[in-house]
Amino acid sequence: MSLLVTGIGELVTGDPQVGDGSPLGVLSGAAFVVDAGTVRWVGDAVGAPAADQAVDVAGRSVIPGFVDSHSHLVFAGDRSAEFAARMAGETYSAGGIRATVAATRAAGDEQLAAQLSRHVAEMARQGTTTVEIKSGYGLTVADEARALALAAAVTRETTFLGAHVVPQEYADDPAAYVDLVTGPMLTACAAHARWIDAFCEVGAFDVDQARTVLEAGRAVGLGMRLHANQLGHGPGVQLACELGAAAVDHCTYLTDADVDALAASGVVAGLLPGVEFSTRSPYPDARRLLDAGVTVALATDCNPGSSYTSSMPLCIALAVREMRMAPAEAMWSATRGGAASLARGDVGHLTVGARADFAVLEAPTYLHLAYRPGVPLVASTWAAGRQVA
Length: 389
Description:
By secondary structure, the chain is an alpha/beta fold. The protein has 14 helices and 17 strands. Helix 7 (236-243) links the parallel strand 11 and strand 12. Helix 5 runs parallel beside helix 6 (207-219) and helix 7 (236-243) runs parallel beside helix 8.
């Protein structure tokens, strides 16, 4: 059954060939037709073809659904006390992950599934229609496999992150843990994952260990992603570029050589401003990356420790205010940039042939996402042409 979405005051198509000529392809007075979950026609509402059903959004702005390309949603436990301690002056480190590991291992499948469903629904209410979900809070063969199986039930963008931190039981033999990750754990998890990832930082995994993990994943057909250069300067960004990873995320501490490598390789730089907001750490310099021609994605990094937000609108507002991005750049990075990070051509835009994933804003323009931070502006969210929130 076809659906005509009409009465749109401002439509962000993501097509630079139409509308205002910007990368966002903004159209005024537009409409589009959805059939079988796919956009079939886009244009001026006056010339819209007939459809089986019609929805009039009464002058509201319509944007592509957000593509959140970095999250950790399969977990149990609460780390609000850790957050309070950071706000009181303690320095963030990766060590708190182990607290979530203990809670997640102790949780039953039903508890984890309910928590996961709640967070995915929370994201949908804020306009997110595509979300990447990582494992990484089990760190045993069975717990990592069940995390990915749960994630695969709600998204196709699942990432095996057995190399999140070295669990306590392997603290004296990290090499043995890397062998586990690249051997039995990878074997158990690969069927449920599209991607493999590693946390390449002091306190987590060094560059040689990260390389071993990513190459093992690549050998069984998984795409490569990497956490890197979050806590300090390091070799992670260069490793991601060398291996041809789809994306390297955090990118807070970069040398000129890192920026040049990102620009030359086409590896997407994922920026996660919720982390800096929640840890009082320096924000990445998005302006530097954009001016160098690097493709930038924005994502929430929703997790219980360093960024417990599911709000892509908040990340847009932070990117504009704290990372020197123009509103249009932040909007693009939260949609088409996220799609690039996930190597997806079917989402992040509203052009003919794309999935009909979109959000209707209680606002006349997408600019309000940064202009009115903290205000719940998403009136409804649609995935494949069906309202989901």
